Amino acid sequence: MTDHLHNRTPHAPRPARLVLAEWARAVTEARWFALTVLGVILANAALLGAETYRGLVGDWHHWLSYAEPACLAAFTAEIALRACAHADRPRDFLRDPWNLFDLAVVVCAFVPLVRENTTVLRLLRLARVLRTARFLPQLRIVMVAVARSLPGTVSFLLVGALLLYVYAMVGWVFYGLQDPEQYGSIGRAVLTLFLLMTLDGLGEAVHAGLEISPWSVLYYASYVLIASFVLVNVLIGVVISSLEEARELEEEREQRHRGPVTHETGRPGTDQAGLGGRDQEIRARIAVARRALDDLEANLRGHAVRRPRGAEGSAPRRSA
Questions:
Q1: How many CB atoms lie within 10 A of CB 318?
Q2: Secondary structure of residue 61 in the 3-state scheme
Q3: Would residue 313 be called left, alpha or beta, if left means φ above 0 and alpha means ψ between -120 and 50 degrees?
């Protein structure tokens, strides 16, 4: 029994990429790592804003020339660590849109044509500021909601453009000759109605229109009701719906990150495939101990069966 209990099942050495992935994942999921990267992003934004002051650039040109390569090196190291964290599952790294965005921002900085173009390089550095959404969950939800609302926003823009065109043509027909400055052409009419969509100068436009036609009240009232109230509320509804969808996606993403929920405890855990070598070794030792106990129980039962039936309670008789 002792031999069985002390018997250990040797396990094969783990692949190097799994060890690298676990180490990199522990680093990238640490709080200090996220705070450090966020600090570098904010420092990059501050440096980009400081370059807009010519006097400051002239005084600190030497130090500012080293700041950009330092930030680029930090971002390169970060994306390399994130890629190493997915060494055991490279496809998951490419499925994450934020990883693709970070990779594109870093890789484009090494392209010769981009580095030689100062304007494109500054726009690329400005895109790094958007990476703060990766470390701020609420901001990430808002950005995902904006991205998911783009199809509905495009439909809204098409309806709005059609509405502007129709009302601009009607305005040109009624006010084109009397008010050429505002409705002299389709372009001027569209610009005028677009500004009226914000209700800016609506009173002056109505009073000027009443001097031309009494139907101006109906014209402007219907336009304001449809453009400023109905369409805007439809756009708000699209954004709110996309915000709810983005929040649900963020919750699902956090659930996948924590892992599946175990049935015994109801808490996030790991599946059978994700058990480490230490857990497998403990399970193997428990199995060996159970087999040893089963063998011991079988031996005890066999010993009890081999004992003579009359052995218990029998005593030698005395002769008379």
A1: 5
A2: helix
A3: left
Helix (H, G, I), strand (E, B) or coil at 1: coil
- For 81, the token pair is 């660590």
The DSSP symbol for 36 reads H
How far apart are alpha carbons 190 and 165 in whole angstroms?
Answer: 7
Residue corresponding to tokens 């790592």: 33
pLDDT surpassing 70 at residue 218: yes
CA atoms of 72 and 102, how far apart (whole Å): 12
The dihedral through the CA atoms of 264, 270, 275, 276 has a sign that is negative
Locate 195 and state its tokens: 């500004």
Give pLDDT tens digits for 69-115: 888 888 889 888 888 888 888 888 888 877 888 888 888 888 887 77
| Residue 309: how many other CB atoms lie within 10 Å | 6
pTM: 0.52
Cα–Cα dist 4/137, whole Å: 52
Burial class of residue 220, CB neighbours in 10 A (0-12, 13-18, 19+)? buried
Please report, rounded to a whole number, the percentage of residues in the chain having pLDDT higher than 90. 1
Amino acid code (one letter) for 296: L
Q: Do 260 and 268 meet the contact criterion of CB atoms below 8 Å apart? A: yes
SS3 content of the chain, % helix, strand, coil (to 5): 80, 0, 20
Tokens of 58: 């002239």
